[in-house]
Amino acid sequence: MKDSNLSRRHVARLLGVAAVIGALGVSIPVFANLPNSTFDAGDGNLVLNDEAKDWVNAPNFAQRIDLLKGQGDDAMGNGTSEDTEVPSLVTDGIPPNKSDITRFYVGSETISNPLKNFLYLAWERITDPSGTTNFDFELNQSTTISSNGKTPIRTPGDVLIKYDLANGGTNPVLGFHRWITGGGSAGSLCEASSKFPCWDKVHMIAGVNFEAAINAVDVLDPINPTAGPNPATPGTNPLARTLSVRTFGEAAIDLVGAGILPQGSCAGFASAYLKSRSSDAFNSAIKDFAAPTNINVNNCGALSVNKYIDIDESGTQSITGNESTIAPLGGVISPDLTGWNITIAGPGSFSCTGSTNSSGALASCLKADNTAANLSALAPGTYTVTENANAGKTIGHNASAFFNTDPGPAAPPSSEQVVVGLGGTVNVNLGNTCYNRATFQVTGVPNDQSGLFVRYWTTDPTSFTDVNLAKQGTTSTWQATAGGFRKGTVVHWQFGLNSDKTVRVNGPAQTMPGYPSCVQSASTPFGTATISGLKYKDLDVDGTMDAADTATAGFTIQLKKGGDVIATTRSSATGAFSFTNVDPGTYTLHEATTTGWIQTEPASNGDITINVPLGVASVTTYGNPAVPIRFGNSPLSKIGVTFSSLGQLRDADGNNTGPATRATSIDCTHGGASVGSSTNSNTNTTNELDLNKSQVTCVITYEDP
């Protein structure tokens, strides 16, 4: 930065004097911006010259506009000194030769690389009085107002920064005191008091840790007195914009480097106000003051921990807020953001554990002594935020198990490390979503069926899992469930019987829906078959169906399981017969006896054994090797043979005495085998015969009696 400002050159010409003062234990300023700060508190003005920041754009700016003497100006009186714990307040009690404060400015900023915490202070007064200039900036940790109604209560660790100028001097000297309440002898620890509480001995601020200047020439104050958090009283005349020589002073302080904020711990201030002392003596009377203004100056970091439901499973919280807002405004169902148990561990054995509230925020975190940790005031350092196992917790409409996606994907507990620095807030957003469950159902299972299983897989059918299906009460539905699936995963499945796992039936694939349903289901029927066969007339009685054989209608076929007939049907005009809705299993087909017919296929009135496999819709064959399901029959016949004598024997009177001839035997054969015979009979009827398109030969033996 160019060193062309008049006040700064004036300060430089006083280096010799400053060196003498420094030898006596008094600090001198550095005549350039503080290292790593872009704020210029060494030029003695309020505007931007060649620096990045000055009072016209001070970071975290706050101001107090003080009334002038005779206008009801706040002042301290009745012997109030710096060690007076609760100052006594009066109105317009400022001597003419002392500083009458007009404005008090304060700013602050935290920068990184390296981490620094800077405090910026400024004062303005109406005129340059004779004598020394002694301003004190009081920094309080509390904003609770004391019994005087204006100034905050003091707590141990509050700081008083002294800003002193010799009579006619331009070289500000800075030091600070801490408010103490004990710890030894008050006479040896206190700056001016012989009893506690008091301000302790001065701690001089080394020149490398501050920069300060006053205006050596008239300067312009462009800051609107009615702007900022503490505007002037409405209706009053604005204060003069041109500040005469020595009526403006400023300082920038490296709070950690100066020792005001302890390094590696959390300390800070919430309120600040400006006072003027009547002399160099620390126990001299306090006169004018500018009322306190709230500030937020500390070397603490803040940690904000929040829970969200990672609906899209992206591992990153949606910027729309949909994943951290309860329905209907958001996509999260209540109470899925509530009750997540989280532990934070950090520097100096810091540890606390708490649970998220209904909006997902970790609002309370209790330490081992059961006191609440202040997550807005943490010592800088590395912190580990752990989402604990949260055993038994479920999310989604169907009470589903969860896993961590941010950080993750991983099963809980899951941890994330963050660095908390000076100022600002580190946000830790912990994302979870549900494991999806797939439900497999098989409907219409026969009551006597048992031992069903489901086989499922996602991408590789050779990498499968088998799970037994369970009957659902007294219904015909069997069900199994599998979990642990991610959103969008396609689950393929089949069901079968444990008795033969090589035979399985495909079920419809399921695509996992993700949060908030977290459950998908699919069902498939157990499945039945149709057994079909043919009834035919076996014309050549060869036990097989030939081209000349014809269909026969009206024959009764029975379907048996075990020894029980479970269904009956008749052959149609085409000879066809069938049984529908047949469950998988082993059955017997039996042809009922029909008078006048003989069964030729299967031979010897045999039955047909049918195996209905799982998942087969039509059964038309049986046996191994497989042959068609058929019943063949041939009709039966009887042949009657009668021998009758036409001639009659007569007696002498001409009367008939009997037939003239007589059969002694009638023998019938079919295919070389006897099918019936009679002896001494004129008639004979054959056995029931399958004609077989052949001949029956009957031989009649007769005689003339």
UniProtKB/TrEMBL annotation:
Q: Which Gene3D superfamilies match?
A: Immunoglobulins
Q: Which Pfam families match?
A: SdrD_B (PF17210)
* Alphabetical GO biological process terms: carbohydrate metabolic process
The keyword Mitochondrion is annotated on this UniProt entry: no
Respond yes or no to whether keyword ATP-binding is given for this record. Answer: no
Bias-annotated ranges (Low complexity): 677-687
Subcellular location(s): the record lists: Secreted
Q: Bias regions of kind Polar residues — which residues? A: 654-667
Report the main location listed first in the record. secreted
- All copies of the SD-repeat containing protein B domain together span 535-609
Mind telling me what this protein is named?
Answer: SD-repeat containing protein B domain-containing protein
Q: Where is this region: Disordered?
A: 652-688
Q: Which UniProt keywords apply?
A: Membrane, Secreted, Signal, Transmembrane, Transmembrane helix
Residue ranges crossing the lipid bilayer per the database entry: 12-32
